[in-house]
Amino acid sequence: MPVKTVKRVDPQALNLKENVVAINRVTKVVKGGKNMSFSALVVVGDAQARVVGFGVGKAKEVPSAIRKGIEAAKKNLRRIHLLDSTIPHQVLGKFGAGLVMLKPAREGTGVIAGGPVRAVVQACGIPNVLTKSIGSHNPHNVVKATINALEQLRDIKVVREMRGLDVSRSDAAKPEPAKAE
Known about the structure:
The protein is built from four helices and eight strands, in the order E-E-E-H-E-E-E-E-H-E-H-H. With 181 residues, it is an alpha+beta fold. Helix 2 crosses helix 3.
């Protein structure tokens, strides 16, 4: 599989909001006893700029782990392509044993998601989306699968250009979002 290059996003120019998804207490057994530390999974994003990233931090105390996670997430930001209030098409993201399906939703549906998927979707500012988490419920795999799904979203202008269609047309048929039940 070819390596995908991601354009770096400058975190200084953004209004980033951070969200702690999971905190784990980790114990390492050594010769002298047990060493306790904490691992924090953090999602950061800017809803206006449609930018999201995640990071993991490990430290002896929880606040230090969260701070390290935020710094790692700021180095891992990605820009997401959206329509006005939802995603352009259905996608399936996969990471490890975690699968996350994202479907477009009509105006007023809101974010139908749970736990780690909700944190990522709200961080990047998608107001209407339907999601389904399939497979592993491990927060790390679910967050990475959600980011993978969001990276698969393509801008409508880029797709029209690739297909050799007129890019300037704005009356192109928009996909019909899925109906919330």
